[in-house]
Design a protein that fits this description.
Elements: H1 8-12, H2 19-22, H3 26-40, H4 55-64, E1 69-72, H5 79-85, E2 93-97, H6 112-121, E3 127-131, E4 136-140, H7 147-150, E5 152-154, H8 156-162, E6 172-174, H9 176-179, E7 183-188, H10 195-206, E8 209-212, E9 215-218, E10 223-229, H11 233-236, H12 242-247, E11 250-253, H13 260-270, E12 278-279, H14 283-298, H15 311-331, E13 335-336, H16 340-345, H17 347-351, H18 358-363, H19 365-385, H20 391-398, E14 403-404, H21 411-419, H22 424-431, H23 439-455, E15 459-461, E16 466-469
Parallel strand pairs: 1-10, 1-11, 4-7, 7-10, 12-13
Antiparallel strand pairs: 2-3, 5-6, 8-9, 14-16, 15-16
């Protein structure tokens, strides 16, 4: 920053003073930098996964069209992340009149402060610089947000200290939108904003003016306006007024990952799994965790209007690793390898992120979460095993065999228990889920096989983690879930 011009005269003589750059709007700036990035063939927004064929082309079109836009989608669909990534399309440095609250362009100031200083100092006008991170302003819309918060208000103390009339523009304490001038202003959950504030927002977008305490103030703001909203908000908590909605150039629909693989990639990127001990998450365990979210999104007992956030599998994976980490430390093991039992230990990360319909409330979040895990385990096993024969395992349980599998037993002890079940290790070997001799992954794979059989109602599993013979429909007791797992072993 020290090499950048510090006065208006020096600025005029620098590349920043070139006519095509001096008066360039922020939308033109975003457009130019986006075109350069597209020409290089690099990723548009690094870290945003799963939108290459859907959301990203619409984003490109909106920016190239110099549109204000809104991202419309359920919670946990990376809307805020996309908006924050827009800063990567801004210039590294932007010149402003030093001390300006509204980031006045030295070549075309919009505030009285900027115009006055420019008239008095001329080419000696001091220049300040903004980096791209300071040019992004984000606000969460709530019903109590006022025009003063967004646009500004008269500051009597400022008037008294400066000896100004209250009608003087110099007495204004600017709100968040004017302070975002020549940058990006992002407003989350737009429908939650009161109608009269939306009107003020529209007015300053459309006409560039606003009335503050009855005094008209004209602010020709240069801002890229971005909004987010949840479709449910249009009716449940508020609405976007028609003039404002009409002024928003592009409405871009976001979505959850379309495939399990994309979801796993997002979860792996976001989840915190690097601990002070070696962590290995088997791919099938990561898949089960991801499929829990996919199963929840199609379950009729879970409110689809609310959605199932991508934060759920991220939180579940972190909880699963933490539970396995605790066990490894207690058992003196040198690495952390999660198992299915650890996913059951992460139930709080599931139940806290699903909104239940009436039928779901009757069953209970815990029971539904367990069912989701079993369905996810079955889908994961089916993907790897197809129609592999598991009759030998089922027959052993039908003949009275039982096995206790909990999250606080060492890998060696669990593996010895699995060795007693005829055919179980053969199934794991035939599906190639675990490398030969890899005990921790083998035990996790064995537990996946048993969990899939529970989902198919061929064996049962209690809440304490005991696997046994299948429970017949007529013998189910109150409190058992649909797969036969009772409240106790």
């Amino acid at each position: 920053m020290s090499l950048l011009p510090e006065t208006l005269g020096a600025l005029k003589a620098s590349p920043f003073g070139a006519p095509e750059r001096a008066l360039r709007s922020v939308k033109d700036e975003l457009r130019a930098n986006l075109l350069a990035r597209l020409a290089c063939g690099g990723p548009l927004f690094p870290g945003v996964i799963g939108y290459d064929e859907t959301v990203m082309p619409q984003m490109v079109n909106a920016i190239l069209s110099r549109h204000n836009f809104i991202l419309l989608g359920l919670r946990g669909q990376a809307k805020s992340r996309i908006l924050r990534a827009l800063t990567s399309l801004l210039d590294d440095a932007l010149p402003i009149i030093a001390g300006s609250e509204v980031n006045d362009n030295p070549f075309a100031p919009i505030s009285k402060y900027g115009r006055t200083l420019l008239t008095e100092a001329g080419d000696d006008t001091p220049i300040g610089w903004l980096d791209r991170s300071t040019r992004y302003v984000e606000k969460l819309a709530t019903p109590d947000v006022t025009i003063a918060d967004i646009i500004g208000d008269v500051d009597p103390i400022k008037a008294a200290r400066g000896g100004h009339l209250l009608s003087d523009e110099l007495t204004i304490h600017y709100g968040m939108l004017p302070r975002a001038n020549r940058g990006i202003f992002a407003l989350n959950e737009l429908p939650d904003l009161a109608g009269k504030v939306q009107v003020g927002l529209f007015n300053i977008m459309q006409e560039g003016d606003v009335q503050i305490k009855g005094y008209p103030v004209r602010l020709a703001l240069d801002v890229e306006l971005c909004f987010t909203a949840n479709p449910e908000d249009y009716t449940a908590r508020g609405k976007i007024i028609t003039p404002l909605k009409d002024r928003i150039g592009s409405e871009i629909i976001t979505h959850y990952p379309e495939t399990v693989g994309l979801g796993m990639a997002i979860t792996a990127q976001e989840a915190w799994v690097n601990r002070g001990i070696r962590v290995r998450v088997p791919d099938f365990i990561a898949e089960v965790i991801e499929r829990v979210a996919f199963e929840a999104r199609v379950d009729k007992r879970i409110d689809r209007r609310s959605g199932v956030s991508q934060r759920m599998p991220i939180s579940v994976l972190e909880n699963v690793v933490s539970n396995a980490e605790r066990r490894a430390l207690e058992m003196g093991e040198t690495e952390v390898v999660p198992r299915i039992a650890d996913i059951y230990a992460a139930l709080p990360a599931i139940t806290g992120k699903i909104e239940l319909e009436y039928e779901g409330e009757l069953i209970g979040g815990q029971a539904i979460a367990r069912e989701l895990i079993r369905r996810a385990a079955d889908a994961t096993f089916k993907e790897r095993a197809g129609n592999i024969n598991t009759d030998e395992i089922v027959m052993w349980f039908d003949s009275g065999g039982a096995l206790q599998v909990s999250d606080d037993v060492s890998t060696d002890a669990i593996h010895k228990g699995f060795e007693t079940v005829p055919g179980l290790l053969r199934v794991v070997r035939d599906t190639a889920m675990a490398p030969r001799g890899d005990l921790p992954v083998t035990t996790a794979a064995c537990e996946l096989v048993l969990e899939a059989l529970v989902a198919r109602r061929k064996i049962s599993r209690s809440d304490t983690g005991q696997y046994g013979r299948a429970v017949q429909e007529q013998r189910r007791r109150p409190g058992q879930d649909m797969f036969g797992g009772g409240l106790s072993a």
